[in-house]
Amino acid sequence: MLHKKKKLTIAILGIALVPSAAMAALYGFGPAEAWTGAQLTQQAAEVSGNIISWGEGFATQMENHFEQTISAIAVATKQESVAANLIASNNVKASQQLVNAVAAQQKSDKIAEVVANYSPSTGQGHKTCTVIQKNKSLDKAFESSHVAAQLYVGQLDNAPGRLVDSSIDAMNQRYKNHLADFCTDAEAAAGLCQKSKLPGGDTNAALLFAPAKPGSLEDKAQLAYIQNVLGPPDSKVSKAAGSSAAGQDYFLAKARKDVMLSIPAYSLARIKAANTVTDAGMSPNQMLEKRTNDYFGSDEAKEWSKTLAVQAPRGLMVETLKVGGLQTWLDFQQLQQTQRINANLAALLITGNDSEKAKADSAFNNVRGEGISGGVR
Prior knowledge:
2 domains; mainly alpha
């Protein structure tokens, strides 16, 4: 900047000296010319001084203005840099906040999903623990009925494999029990006995399918009914009679009879066991009916429907599996029932075939007799 000032001053002085030299060349050096020259020199000096002063002031102003401009540009640049940094920082913070918000939302969604999937009210189906306990109790009751049925068969006077001292005495005892416990209106009118609270109970099949408490009159009626269906008991024979050919035929016939009767005897006893009240206060069939009503028609079924309405997909799946498990258990019970039905049908078919076998044996004996007669001739 100072170098530019010097160049400007030299240029101005050069311009100021030109008029004096030019006047001297044109007009010479007389008094008037001298005065005029002095005035011109003085004016040139003043003009030169003014020009120099103006130039120096202008240069100074230009320098100050330039410095101010440079300073303003620097400030503006700094502000621009600061603004850019602030913007970048704000963008980073905003991105971090967005990431945090998304993470928080995902965490919240995951918690909500876990609560919905595993909460007892939305993710476990209807009263999971209660349902499991009911299913266990139901299965235990029917499993126990198998053992109970065997015990009931053993209490019959005509149980398979049993022989009584006297068949006549056993039938007389049945009749006495009938008059004492199951006297009918007709028998009471004839003066044979006093009318029972359960008249004809030992001949009423409907009682076999009704709940009965152990030791009750209904319980006695069920056992008496099964005895009457299976027929009179078989009598014992002496050792000597049993050792004879007829005795052996008797025991073979007795064994075959017991084999055939054991199937319906067990089936009837299973029906009784399923309708005998247990320690739970209900019979197995009553427990099954109540368990079924938990899904259809009862107040419990209404609660079940309400529970399904608020279940998450996992809860619905769990409930579907529980109902499916109950259905599988029912299918197994039905399989056992079907096996007993098939066994009874097989026994019935074989028994019904006895008459045909008797005919065939008779025909064989006739043929054999004719053959022997022909040989004798």
